[in-house]
Each structure stands twice: as C-alpha cells, then as structure tokens.
Amino acid sequence: MTRVPQPELPPERARLAASLRELRTGTGLSLAALATKTTFSKSSWERYLNGKTLPPGQAVRELCRLAGEPEGRCLALWELAESEWSGRAAAQPTDAPGPEDSPGGDALRPAGGRGTFMAILASVCALAAGGLSVALVLVAGHTGDSRPSAPPSSAATPRCLGATCEGQDPMPMKCGTHPLTLASHRTSTGAHLELRYSTECGASWVRMWSTRIGDRLEMDPAGEATGRPHTAKITDGIAAQSYVYTPMTEARPGATVRACFRPVTGGSRECFEARV
C-alpha cells in the first residue's frame, strides 16, 4: 500500500514545534501531566507539539515556565510562526520589522517576521545569550482550544523600578509589556534600531534587528557618554535574524537616552538619541 506523504509544515511552524518538544522533554512531563499543570488540554498539547495547530502565546509561556527556561526566544519563534499562519508575513515589506507592537509589547513579543529566516536550532529556546523580544498577536480562532487561559494580570506586574532596573533584562523584569518607542534609526548597513521606554519601570533600552554576526549595540546609561554603556552583540545567525536588545538603564522623564551601533564591517559608529 502506497503511503500518502504528509504535507510538509512551514519552516516557521516546524521550528517552533521542535523547540516546544525539546522544552517538554526537559520537563519530563507526559502530555496528560502537562495538561494538569497548564490551562491547555492533552489533545491541544499534542497538536501544538506536532505543529498541527499554532499554539497561543500563553501556551508557549507556560511551557517555558515549567521547563525553567527564558521565554524570549521561544516567543520570537512563535511570532514568526504566527506571522506565517495569519498571512501577515506575506503582506509586509521585506525591509520592515513586522507589525507594530501589540498590547503584548517586548516581553510578549523577541522577534519579528521579516523576510527569509535562517535555519534555527530546535534548542533555541534554551539559549541564554542575548535578549530577544516578540510582539504577540493572540489569534483566538487558531488554537481550537476551548479551555480558558490563565489570568495575565500577575504576569504583567513589573519586577523593578528606576534604579533597580539598571542593567536588568527588560523581559524577565516584565518591563516590556507596554513599551513606548522613543526613536528609531536605520543604519547604513540596513540594521534597524529602536530606543524603547517603559513608563511602568521608569527604564529604557534599545533593540536591533536585521543585523550581522559581530554587530554591536551600546546604550549610554541616562544618556551620559562617560557612564558604562550597556551592550548587546550579535553572536550567531539566530541572533542576527531576531530582535536583540540591551539591558535597561534608568530613565526619568526629561532624561536623554542615547544608543550607538558599531557594525562588524568596520564602518563608522552610528548614534541616535531621544528624550523620555
């Protein structure tokens, strides 16, 4: 009997499913046990892990929590898969970062559908180097799951304020939930930069995408050139195709924040700034 080949999953969804399977393996939980510890059913998890259905962002966050892994990179993969699923990726210009931030902001967002995405290792969710953020657009009709989601209120509560945010990662500190974009800049090499600010945390950071391995981003704390800058560097192809952001710096109303981009090609440093 001839076996009918199964349709091949889109690469974005295949990468997400592979990463979720690895996370689930790390938890040591069966599908049934996974259902008891999350707000999603056993049958739903079976579909999510096999790529049959795009999981909601909440499912990704809950699995990351159970596995004890940062959620940024998995949410970056989720946004790419959701962009392909909803058709947003095809509708966007190739030089654009993707849709404007939804209520999910950076903490619920990574890392932007923008043209062809390089091959991503299935273990990408467990990587800690660099920070990523992804904007979630929860599409209710795609999950096929009738079970209620967990209340998001506690997840959105900031974990730092002002000086206590200095040098911290905006994602685990929950400062990227409703960020403002203070300024944006496109470099001569084609990289995109944005200065971000959280009113809830009183802190700012800068992110970049469409970069190259070796590119470097620096942010001057409170805009002071003599201070020790917070930095982010593109270390691999995964980071080059994702949103990568610097640690945060305290930014009070009226303060100026400044960021500088250093391309790996050896070109001149490009800086831009904005007032909070």
Describe the structure.
A hairpin with a 5-residue loop joins strand 1 and strand 2 (192-198). The protein has 276 residues and is α+β, with helices and mostly antiparallel strands. The protein is built from seven helices and nine strands; from the N terminus they run ααααααβββββαββββ. Helices cover 24% and strands 17% of the residues. The protein has helices at residues 11-27, 31-37, 42-50, 57-67, 72-86, 88-91, 237-240; strands at residues 180-186, 192-198, 203-209, 216-220, 230-233, 244-245, 249-250, 256-262, 270-275. Helix 1 (11-27) runs parallel beside helix 4 (57-67), helix 1 runs antiparallel to helix 5 (72-86) and helix 2 packs across helix 3 (42-50). The strands form two sheets. Strands 1, 2, 3, 6 and 7 form a five-stranded antiparallel beta sheet that branches. A four-stranded antiparallel beta sheet has the order 5-4-8-9, with no helix packed on it.
